[in-house]
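Pilot study result, target chain (93 residues):
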Amino acid sequence: MINGKVVLIGGTGFMLSHATERNAQNGNEVVIFDNNLEHDLYEETRKLINQYTNVHTKADLTAAKKYLGWVPKTPLIDGLKKTIPYYARLMGM
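Predicted structure:
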């Protein structure tokens, strides 16, 4: 956590949904990167997340790969080198 802002990868799954809820209740801004469609708790977790205005979700690319056959042209490490600083700036970190 930096300046009351938390980034969780997989934050809608069974384990990290509890961290999401706790951080949201404590007033922290929470950004979740997850492929929500892949787990059985999706609807229950969505209801939880919708209770808070300080929780934001970002989809990953799993569904695009699975349903559309899409594959990225940028290697993962190169994408992360650009994505992480982008979201850090966006969140004022």
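One observation from the pilot: The CA atoms of residues 62 and 68 lie 10 Å apart. A full batch analysis is planned for the follow-on phase.
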